[in-house]
């Protein structure tokens, strides 16, 4: 927004001029914030040491030196150590209406930056369906990727498929050695058996039967161990077979992701780095470093105590005693591969990966790698009775959540009697949009580092700070515009002087800065918070200000409604939510 940029520049210049009069150093850094009670705030706490004054006194003295109104600065107040600036309302409203009306759906989209960003997310092991406990990963990752695309970056989303290890090998063995009759018997004997026909749900029973058959059966255990050794030594036939089974499981996982509007651009298989020799190259690089050491059993490690890692975690093991590589080794090869095709590498990881991520970065430094990944850690979702566990049967599958959300949305639509003129196909599409929107919004609205306890009533809430509320407000803006019919876009800010009109216009102007903040911090929960702010401002405006019967101000108010529709539509897109034009 041109006016917003100029307003911020004028605020900074006014403060710096006042500071110069006070004898402050010219290079003092000024922090800018967007508070609830002003258009821009500059805190004075960081200035206290240089000026040897308390922040409250600094703010008051600066405020005394700046005369308002001046330029785009309408007013200024000092409060609790903050300088709170208010912008000229007419100029802001005029700028908002002009820019959004001209750019329409492109509002908020930045020019191409040429920066290649790799966002690795989901990457759940292909050994079973995605459960709600891990659902934050794809939803946070996909939302971040969407926001970064709006910022003009060249974004690639990527799934790192773990097709190496005992679990995947046992799954593959089970597919070949467990009969359909044994699978059916296991289903019949399982309390609360999973009756979902999707392939990822079905293959879990092959895995369970295989686990039971192998238990205390030495020949079968050796068969699995031999298969694992052949895999990790690079045997192409074994790798291809296991990968084929993993691909089958992955097809089911991808169907689930598609249901929540998540798609990935690239899949990289862990086995690739065994097959192409990259993992062995990592081993040689680490062995050659001064930090390398060897255990008595022959396993190799690097000592990371010089990299800020202490205690029992200083030894980062990168080969087993038999010389085969570990997941950690292959992860290093994977990151080196990503660095060759990306300027920024973002890893969306569970909070249990913090140590592993720190060790990875240290090992990359040892190998002379200058780039480092940007981790985005998230806390796991738990149930009121505790953390989810597939093995213990304490789990809610994401497929079940999506189905339940859609069913509840369908019931709400029909009970609201808003579907009498809709086809069954249209009703189901809207129900799916609302249900998926409820799930995605509820999961991403909580900061990634905050614990999230999954409760059905919260996840599927259609009231207050929720996805369906945001979609409803979008649908309301569409309904108003349909009723209005043709109108002439009027971007004259002098016609919109009501406090609710001004508040809505100023809220719309924040969209670009919210995207910039997400780009800088990766805090995607800022987007649903902003969407709710827009929706609330629009509902206040609509309740207090007539639109269709507004006389000479009708076109200007309809233009404001249309601008709101464009911004909310882009917010919904960033959140991976459908934008139904009727609800």
Throw out a few tags for this protein.
single chain; 583 residues; alpha/beta; three-stranded antiparallel sheet; flat
Question: Could you characterize what this model shows?
Answer:
By secondary structure, the protein is an alpha/beta fold. The protein has 22 helices and 14 strands. A 5-stranded parallel beta sheet has the order 6-5-4-10-11, sandwiched between helices. The longest helix is centred in the middle third of the chain and has 24 residues, at 236-259. The protein is flat. The two termini are 32 Å apart.
Spatial arrangement of strands, main beta sheet: 6-5-4-10-11
Main β-sheet, in a few words? 5 strands, parallel
Report the structural category.
Answer: alpha/beta
Large-scale geometry: flat
Number of helices: 22
Tell me what portion of residues adopts beta-strand conformation.
5-15%
Radius of gyration: 28 Å
Name the assembly state: single chain
Distance separating the two termini: 32 Å
What is the fold's blueprint, element by element?
Layout: H1 2-21, E1 40-43, H2 48-51, H3 55-65, E2 73-79, E3 82-87, H4 89-103, E4 116-120, H5 136-150, E5 154-161, H6 166-177, H7 180-189, H8 199-214, H9 218-232, H10 236-259, E6 266-269, H11 272-275, H12 278-287, E7 292-294, E8 300-303, E9 315-317, H13 327-340, E10 344-350, H14 354-366, E11 374-378, E12 381-383, E13 386-387, H15 398-415, H16 424-444, E14 452-453, H17 456-459, H18 467-484, H19 499-508, H20 511-521, H21 526-544, H22 554-574
Parallel strand pairs: 4-5, 4-10, 5-6, 10-11, 12-14
Antiparallel strand pairs: 1-3, 2-3, 7-8, 8-9, 12-13
Helix pairs in contact: 4-19, 4-22, 6-8, 6-9, 6-10, 7-8, 8-10, 9-10, 12-13, 13-14, 15-16, 18-21, 18-22, 19-21, 19-22, 21-22
């Amino acid at each position: 927004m041109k006016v917003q940029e100029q307003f911020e520049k004028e605020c900074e210049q006014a403060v710096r001029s006042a500071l110069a009069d006070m004898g402050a150093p010219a290079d003092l850094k000024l922090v800018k914030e967007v508070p609830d009670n002003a258009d821009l705030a500059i805190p004075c706490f960081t200035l206290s040491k240089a000026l040897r004054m308390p922040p409250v006194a600094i703010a008051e003295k600066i405020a005394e030196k700046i005369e308002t109104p001046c330029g785009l600065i309408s007013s200024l107040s000092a409060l609790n150590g903050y300088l709170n600036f208010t912008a000229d309302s007419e100029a802001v409203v005029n700028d908002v209406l002009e820019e959004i009306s001209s750019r329409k759906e492109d509002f908020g989209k930045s020019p191409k930056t040429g920066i290649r960003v790799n966002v690795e997310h989901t990457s759940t092991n292909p050994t079973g369906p995605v459960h709600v406990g891990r659902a934050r990963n794809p939803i946070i990752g996909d939302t971040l990727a969407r926001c970064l695309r709006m910022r003009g970056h060249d974004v690639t989303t990527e799934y790192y498929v773990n097709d190496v290890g005992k679990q995947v090998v046992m799954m593959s063995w089970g597919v070949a050695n467990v009969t359909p009759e044994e699978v059916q018997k296991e289903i019949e004997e399982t309390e609360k058996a999973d009756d979902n026909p999707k392939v990822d749900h079905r293959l879990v029973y092959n895995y369970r039967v295989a686990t039971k058959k192998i238990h205390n059966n030495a020949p079968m255990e050796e068969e699995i161990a031999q298969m694992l050794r052949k895999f990790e030594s690079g045997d192409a036939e074994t790798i291809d077979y296991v990968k084929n089974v993993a691909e089958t499981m992955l097809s089911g996982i991808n169907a689930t992701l598609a249901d929540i509007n998540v798609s990935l651009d690239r899949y990289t298989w862990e086995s690739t780095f065994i097959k192409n020799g990259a993992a062995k190259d990592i081993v040689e690089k680490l062995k050659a470093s001064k930090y390398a050491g060897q255990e008595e059993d022959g396993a190799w490690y690097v000592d990371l105590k010089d990299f800020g890692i202490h205690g029992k975690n200083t030894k980062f093991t990168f080969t087993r005693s038999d010389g085969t590589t570990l997941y950690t080794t292959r992860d290093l090869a994977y990151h080196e591969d990503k660095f060759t095709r990306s300027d920024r590498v973002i890893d969306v990881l569970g909070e249990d990966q913090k140590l592993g991520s720190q060790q990875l970065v240290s090992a990359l430094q040892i190998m002379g790698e200058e780039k480092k990944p940007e981790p985005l850690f998230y806390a796991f979702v738990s149930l009121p009775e505790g953390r989810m566990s597939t093995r213990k049967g304490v789990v809610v599958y994401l497929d079940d959540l999506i189905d339940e959300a859609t069913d509840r949305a369908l019931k709400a639509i029909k009970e609201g009697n808003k579907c009498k003129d809709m086809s069954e196909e249209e009703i189901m599409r809207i129900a799916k949009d609302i249900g998926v929107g409820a799930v995605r919004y509820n999961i991403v609205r909580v900061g990634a580092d905050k614990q999230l306890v999954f409760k059905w009533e919260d996840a599927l809430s259609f009231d207050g700070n929720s996805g369906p509320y945001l979609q409803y407000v979008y649908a309301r803006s569409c309904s108003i515009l349909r009723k209005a019919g043709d109108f002439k876009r009027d971007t004259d800010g002098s016609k919109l002087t009501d406090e609710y009109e001004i508040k809505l216009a100023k809220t719309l102007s924040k969209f670009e800065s919210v995207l910039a903040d997400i780009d800088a911090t990766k805090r995607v929960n800022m987007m649903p918070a902003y969407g709710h702010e827009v929706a609330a401002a629009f509902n206040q405006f609509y309740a207090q200000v007539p639109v269709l019967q507004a006389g000479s101000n009708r076109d200007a108010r309809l233009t404001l409604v249309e601008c709101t529709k464009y911004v909310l539509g882009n917010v919904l897109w960033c959140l991976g939510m459908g934008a139904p034009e009727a609800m």
